[in-house]
Specification:
The chain is mostly helical. Helix content is 75%, strand content 0%. It has 9 helices and no strands.
Length: 282
């Protein structure tokens, strides 16, 4: 049932993406953007139902695999996008971000969401674990939106640099507005990622007795933090624009690569994302 509800949500998100892309191509059709917003809102609400049903069906295990993690990040990205569309008059943003939301749901739509069922063991039923998973998904969602904004900035910057003031120039907003939004998203994402890093160390200390190890997952988490911290430092040094946008794109690709790569290689990381003692699973 969880997968069926998720498929409805994915269909609504895809329809919203189509509406916003149509509006991006044909900006005179303002009604398409309004339809897209309500479809996005409907998809978000149905996604909430899917998450709630999944908690009842899988007992929380769905958040300890890549499918569930991406789905949660997609839901948070959709929620953040709803807020941003109200705060910023850049409907084109949805045309870049919503396809990412749809892609994040595909693993859950075409496969089982939870790899296990039943109640979570005592060692992971802790507030710190809930906090860690929530903020980790939220930071990925913020970085995903920043990725979309960075692509918009690079496309617009290319138009301006080449003095080709065509269709994109009138549909992507202004370089200054995109630059400010991108910097805010990166700062917010870094703050939330920092909470995920600290809460992960707290959980690791409880489970393994070590808050820090050179585990592959911990290493890539630190790499991402350093990269985005470097972006914030660049901003304070007055460095922004194209270089800032390019590094934002690179940072998100590193996040995706590490998420997929760490799951694809067996036993490369200590806990495989579930914070269960290895000896307890034998």
């Amino acid at each position: 049932m969880t997968v069926a509800i998720l498929r409805i949500s994915a269909l609504l998100y895809a329809s919203a993406a189509a509406a916003y892309i149509f509006h991006f191509v044909r900006p005179r059709h303002t009604r398409a953007a309004a339809v897209g917003f309500w479809l996005l809102l409907a998809g978000f609400v149905v996604h909430v139902l899917s998450i709630g049903w999944g908690c009842a069906e899988y007992g929380g295990w769905e958040f300890f695999n890549l499918r569930g993690g991406l789905g949660m990040a997609g839901w948070l990205a959709a929620g953040a996008l709803l807020v941003l569309l109200r705060l910023y008059a850049i409907p084109g943003l949805a045309a870049f971000v919503l396809p990412l939301v749809v892609v994040s749901l595909l693993p859950g739509v075409f496969g089982a969401i939870g790899s296990r069922s039943g109640s979570l063991p005592e060692e992971v039923r802790r507030p710190a674990v809930t906090l860690h998973i929530s903020v980790a998904a939220a930071s990925v969602a913020l970085f995903a939106i920043a990725f979309g904004v960075a692509l918009m900035y690079l496309l617009l910057e290319r138009e301006v640099k080449g003095k080709h003031f065509g269709a994109l120039f009138s549909r992507l907003g202004s370089l200054d507005a995109l630059d400010r939004l991108l910097q805010r998203l990166v700062r917010a994402g870094l703050a939330v990622w920092s909470v995920a890093l600290v809460s992960g160390a707290v959980v690791a200390q409880h489970v393994w007795g070590k808050g820090w190890t050179w585990d592959a997952q911990v290493f890539f988490t630190l790499v991402v933090w350093v990269l985005y911290f470097g972006l914030v430092w660049m901003h304070h040094r007055g460095i922004h624009g194209r270089r800032f946008a390019v590094l934002t794109v690179v940072g998100f690709l590193v996040i995706l690569g590490s998420m997929i790569g760490l799951k694809a290689v067996p036993d490369i990381t200590q806990h495989q994302g579930d914070f269960i003692r290895r000896e307890a699973t034998r």
